[in-house]
Amino acid sequence: MSTPPTTDDSGFEFDESAVRRKRRLGKLFLGLCGTATLVGIVALVALLVDVVVEAWGWLTWEFLTYPPSQIVEHYDPSNYGDLPTGPGGLYPAIVGSIYLIVLTAIFTLFLGVGAAIYLEEYAPDNRLTRFIEANITNLAGVPSIVYGLLGLAVFVRALQTGASLIAGALTLTLLILPIVIVQSQESLRAVPDSMRQASYGTGATKWQTIRNVVLPEAVPGIMTGIILSLSRAIGETAPILMVGAATTMFTPPELTDPTGPFSAMPMQIFEWAKLPDGDFQHVAAAGIVVLLTVLLLMNAVAIYIRNAYDPRG
Amino acid sequence: MSSEPIDLSRSGNDVGTIGDRVARYVFFACAFVTVATTVAIIAVLVEGAIDFFSAVSIVEYLTGTNWSPRAADDPSFGVLPLVWGTLMITVGAALIAVPVGTLTAIYLSEYASPRVRSVVKPVLEILAGIPTIVYGFFAISFITPILQGLGGRVPLLPEPGTFNAAAAAIVVGIMIIPMVSSISEDAMSSVPDSLRNAAYGLGATKFEVSTQVVLPASLSGIVAAYILAVSRAIGETMAVALAAGALPQLTRNPFEEIQTMTAYMVEIGTGDASVGSIGYQSLFAIGLTLFVMTFLMNIFSMWVRSRYREEYQ
Amino acid sequence: ITRGESSHLEGEIVIDGSNTLLPNSALVAELFMWENNQVNISVSGAGTGAGFQQFCRDETDLQNASREINDAEADQCADNGVEWLELEVVLDGLAVMKHPDNDWCDCLTVEELSRMWERGSDVETWADLDDERPDEEWPDEEIAFYGRDAASGTYDYFTEQINGAVGNIRDDFSGSPDTNNIIRGVRGNRHAVGFGGAGYYYENEDDVDLVAIDNGNGCVEPERETIEAETYQPLSRPMYLYVRMGALAREEFRAFVRFYLENTQETARDVGFYAVPDETIDSQREKLEDAIAGVT
Amino acid sequence: MTANGEAPRTVSKSAADDQQSTATSVDDGSLGSSRVADPVIESRDLDVYYGDDQALDGIDMTIPERQVTALIGPSGCGKSTFLRSINRMNDLIDIARVDGELSFHGKNVYDEDVDPVALRRKIGMVFQKPNPFPKSIFDNVAYGLRVQDQDENVEQQVRTALERAALLEEVEDQLDSSGLDLSGGQQQRLCIARAIAPDPEVILMDEPASALDPVATSKIEDLVEELAEEYTVVIVTHNMQQAARISDKTAVFLTGGHLVEFDDTDKIFENPESDRVEDYITGKFG
Amino acid sequence: MTANGEAPRTVSKSAADDQQSTATSVDDGSLGSSRVADPVIESRDLDVYYGDDQALDGIDMTIPERQVTALIGPSGCGKSTFLRSINRMNDLIDIARVDGELSFHGKNVYDEDVDPVALRRKIGMVFQKPNPFPKSIFDNVAYGLRVQDQDENVEQQVRTALERAALLEEVEDQLDSSGLDLSGGQQQRLCIARAIAPDPEVILMDEPASALDPVATSKIEDLVEELAEEYTVVIVTHNMQQAARISDKTAVFLTGGHLVEFDDTDKIFENPESDRVEDYITGKFG
Ligand SMILES: Nc1ncnc2c1ncn2[C@@H]1O[C@H](COP(=O)(O)OP(=O)(O)OP(=O)(O)O)[C@@H](O)[C@H]1O
Ligand SMILES: Nc1ncnc2c1ncn2[C@@H]1O[C@H](COP(=O)(O)OP(=O)(O)OP(=O)(O)O)[C@@H](O)[C@H]1O
Ligand SMILES: [Mg+2]
Ligand SMILES: [Mg+2]
Ligand SMILES: O=P([O-])([O-])[O-]
């Protein structure tokens, strides 16, 4: 006990070769991880550049404000001067997509937040609740094209809405509902229990507590979740294809009458890509750029909200 | 204050309490929409599939190796080529997304500064939000030409066709990278620092902490991310419909054309099959098969999560 | 939109049906819109079959069809009290296409085509076909087959004309819902062959070449003259517009259908179809006016 | 470091002396509730379970009006559980279950016809960690008034509550700024103001100063003593000096959820009946 | 409740008496490192900053070999920070910055050529909350051995470590079950076993018993005293009785990151030089 078990008096040897070897391995691993991260970023950049290059020269103001045309020369800005009709564009589909998303947002907001509130704040911990939660998890994994079939059978056929804006919006609502519910639940769960206790402690009822304390706290998270889900919905092609979105519309649908036909950006892009003239690939790419811009804007808003309300500053 | 009797009863005029009860039912209804959705999906799919299976034996459907349901004189209804196509895409996509996504998650969670993480994570998440139809074009206009350029020049790499499983699998893989990386990163970040400190305190290097402590401790979350990403790949529609082709065949060569279940559904859904024909009904049989496959994946995922739930708080 | 305000016509017209005919109807609608901007027209491409389902349930006004209505569909229309009028509006030619570097095969007989495409075909390589052409040596390379998918009217028509029955076609061809994909497929493989709407060929002349068809009267290519004169056989066919009689009571709808017949010969050529002969158009006009007279 | 050194400062308590004689030790099983002048809260044989685990075992206690009653004991002995069972905050814990009787002014709060929301309007609560809402200081204090529909003259009521909570002076100019911008001690006083604004009868406090620094702690302690002039205060603390300083009565819980001794604070700290209490108080364990 | 009542049980300490004379109070500025028989760790004018906030201010301390040195002081005074600066765990906090010198066997651990990983292999650490890995008991203890490539005879080493941590008997039959299935006290002993398995020289403990119940706490305390027979132990505690019971030397930090007094434990608790230390120890604040 009087002599130290491991130390020699000459000082302490800190540089162990074993550690150095491990550090080299660690550097290698870090390189690997960094490279993997770059793969995703490079793919994103390649994709964006590819689309933008294809669309270059075809994306004009007129493209955003005119209805589509079957004749590819109508999209070429150099021909705008001498057309029997007007330039070709994406206008009705842009408006269609926006209306579609607005309706979807309204339905999703009520259903999604309502369901999340039930599950987080009201639901007792019993079999039914667990079943509902498991069911939601499962629905989140159902392929979107199956939702398309559902929308076709239930809304278009059974409920007789036809291939309408409302049918499309309801189908997209069901599609994103599971994700919105789960994310809203997470936001609600992130509200510290001490907030609820403080409210109950002052004699508030459950509903008062939820409305005045829990929801305001959870709103940024809920909004982020909804916007991100909507930005997924706006790009979905398969379900609205199944529901039967119009391939060509010359006027935007009317929001006041959501039972009419509609076209949407992904649908229009898909149609352009199928047309014979090779130049339509450029038109489709221009459409994609518009769609991606809308989508990135929505993402940016979501990120802004997330950061602006991030409790960590 | 104490002499007068106090009233603690539920008085009828207490608006709060009534609103409370009403709110409860409304929110329950919202949550129940999700159950109704599942019931409706199953009902729609089963109803259509019953018609189909009254004409086609289930055994032939599940074991047949040839899928040509619309051939007039001698149709065959073996779903295996479609399932095979789906599996090729799924496995290929997973081969890309799992290593890349996991390494990315490790980088973001363990190495990147909060600043880098707060930029890179949402940027990568954009990949998951890009409409799948865009990935389809990207595959055709960018990935396939690269593969064709490599084909013949690189040894062992056969010449890929215009439509091939590989290009589709690559874009689907890119698309699901963020599902793997973000969810895994969440799981890794939720590993408490106390575990990292414990390992550092024992003289572990960062590499060892990341791979031997953080990774195993977050394994259930990571596996759940894999499963989620894989079910997304199974259900992926537009990208494969555009890039993988439309030839249902059992081939081992990923550079050949194939067809997935979803792509077949798009084909029927947009085509001319008359409602009620066996070809149209096959849509529901395939839809049901797809639903069952993703359902099983989800059950598996839930099982993994509950079985290997992280027990630290 | 800055033109067409002067028109007093307004209303909503819903067109659905064939994907193939869609571009023609869409172009007619486009032109009509520029003159009557208060008429809201939507054109969808659910496919001929799905389109008839809606048409016969009174959900659409006009039905694009790449084939004639079948008995089941006609019965359904009758059950729902939907009366209709069939108008022949364009001619389509199906082109058989090959890679531009394919210098051995310029023309195929219908029999050869049938041997290539039929179900259970024994033709795998080009060399399998040259036995009937003793002085030619075709490469012993595997043929890649491309065509429209089984859900299309184009597929129905091709299989029926070449192989004798709808759906009689080899298993290992790649059926695509998008003719551009067929072009891409053929363009990407020196040994490929594909069939699809002839209009797509003319938009992609640099990328693919035509194979002429010999129906016993020598080799004929699908060109405007040969198709409009109906000498390109058997791969040219008429396409139809089905008009819901009930809708003819509406003024803007009548105007649109009349406009359709006036313009379809020209629009057909713009979107890769062929014009029906003048006599046919005249008879269709008469049919229409008779029907209108009956309704109003 | 003994209780002697820090004798409870009962001087400011009006009722302290009268209560002296009513002291009762539950160890001997005699329940002297009738002898307590004005019992506000009485618990009779109260058991609380979390699932299958019993957290409180047969608690009998009579809490007098307008005094400070301290609950002390080692961690996990059930102090918070008892506190929460008074205003039925335990209802919010799914697995919590209550047996026995707890009455407020003679009415068993676990009777069928008692609305816990109405009960909590009479019995305010302050928590261990300051938990102001992420709202303005004003809205924090006004919150209870609003949910209880006491929205007449809110402004005046808010100021009074802040005044009583000894916070008004410090925040007078920033009533509109967020409650979260205050220091920990100020936040806790804000929570106290919020609890007293709707004018409850009883205030429950669960270790209200344990997250605070010494200066803030002593402010809270002063405040508690003042509050007892108007309210009945029940306070949980793990700090024995604190209990000795501010309370009139002290209840000692020990592991297993037993109330081992309940008596005047002086008595408990100077001459406890139970050896275990003595051990605990002199720091032999805990 | 005074330190007298709970005099440090130094009887089990072999070296305690010899060290008595080496006591040094840093208050007077004299740094008696040369007088300490076997200084293992010496800090000279050590400052630690988090960003712009200074958490430690000019700490001079000489920690003797194979004794228990306790660090006490009110919350936030920098005890944990000092502990973490010994084995450079502060390196893991991005904003932490260290000035001055901290030497281990005479070598400044903040020198360029010191690898913190190698350093931590000599200086083990036990944390406030038990933090076993979600692995089996065996793998938990073996972890350090494996990362340090001491993988010969792992089985034996694991058993020895568990034995020394007074845990072997309780878990002998369940070495393959998860470390998380143990009780809090057992988990903490598991963490101690894990820390001592690779045979470090120094063991740092940051409030190792604060999350535990009294029984588990006393087991840990016994263990700490035993460990000091073979290891140098530095322990942070907020429980003064605990410091008095188990340590040979006590360092008192006060707010602002100052080391106010460092001396033999008996001295500190019976007769501290500084009034502020006396106030703190007698519970006047904190
Ligand atoms: N929500 C809960 N669910 C399950 N058990 C609980 C819950 N809250 C408390 N308990 C258990 O009940 C017992 C008493 O807990 P309680 O919180 O009342 O103790 P306490 O005396 O307040 O302790 P502390 O001083 O640590 O706050 C403990 O064993 C605790 O584990
Ligand atoms: N990671 C960190 N980042 C920024 N500041 C920190 C960090 N850790 C500690 N501090 C600050 O440094 C000061 C000293 O903290 P330290 O944790 O060393 O105190 P302590 O004496 O251990 O307190 P306690 O008894 O509460 O554990 C405190 O003011 C604290 O807020
Ligand atoms: Mg408590
Ligand atoms: Mg600390
Ligand atoms: O879309 P089709 O015209 O080929 O039916």
From TrEMBL, chain A:
Domain of life, per lineage: Archaea
PROSITE patterns: ABC_TM1
Signal sequence range: none
GO biological process entries: phosphate ion transmembrane transport
Membrane-protein topology: Multi-pass membrane protein
Compartments where found: Cell membrane
Primary residence: membrane
Keywords: Cell membrane, Membrane, Transmembrane, Transmembrane helix, Transport
Gene Ontology terms for molecular function: phosphate transmembrane transporter activity
A Gene Ontology term for the protein's cellular component: plasma membrane
Short name of one Pfam family: BPD_transp_1
Positions of the ABC transmembrane type-1 domain: 94-301
Spans traversing the lipid bilayer: 28-49, 90-119, 131-156, 162-182, 283-305
Family: Belongs to the binding-protein-dependent transport system permease family. CysTW subfamily.
Protein name, UniProt field: Phosphate transport system permease protein PstA
Biological source species: Salinadaptatus halalkaliphilus
From TrEMBL, chain B:
Origin superkingdom: Archaea
Residue intervals passing through the bilayer: 25-46, 82-108, 120-143, 163-180, 213-234, 283-304
CDD domains hit by this protein: TM_PBP2
An annotated GO BP: phosphate ion transport
Similarity-based family: Belongs to the binding-protein-dependent transport system permease family. CysTW subfamily.
Function: Part of the binding-protein-dependent transport system for phosphate; probably responsible for the translocation of the substrate across the membrane.
Name the UniProt record assigns to this protein: Phosphate transport system permease protein
Subcellular locations according to the entry: Cell membrane; Membrane
Record's bilayer topology term: Multi-pass membrane protein
GO cellular component, one term: plasma membrane
Annotated ranges, domain ABC transmembrane type-1: 83-301
Pfam families on file: BPD_transp_1 (PF00528)
One Gene Ontology molecular-function label: phosphate transmembrane transporter activity
Record's keyword terms, sorted: Cell membrane, Membrane, Phosphate transport, Transmembrane, Transmembrane helix, Transport
From TrEMBL, chains D, E:
Protein name: Phosphate ABC transporter ATP-binding protein
Polar residues compositional bias, start-end: 11-33
Record organism: Salinadaptatus halalkaliphilus
Residue numbers spanned by region Disordered: 1-37
GO biological process, one term: phosphate ion transmembrane transport
Residue ranges of domain ABC transporter in the record: 41-281
Pfam families documented for this protein: ABC_tran
Keywords, in A-Z order: ATP-binding, Cell membrane, Membrane, Nucleotide-binding, Transport
PANTHER family tied to this protein: ABC TRANSPORTER I FAMILY MEMBER 17
GO CC entries: membrane
InterPro entries reported in the protein's UniProt record: AAA+_ATPase (IPR003593), ABC_transporter-like_ATP-bd (IPR003439), ABC_transporter-like_CS (IPR017871), P-loop_NTPase (IPR027417), PstB-like (IPR005670)
SMART domains: AAA
Native organism taxonomy: Archaea, Methanobacteriati, Methanobacteriota, Stenosarchaea group, Halobacteria
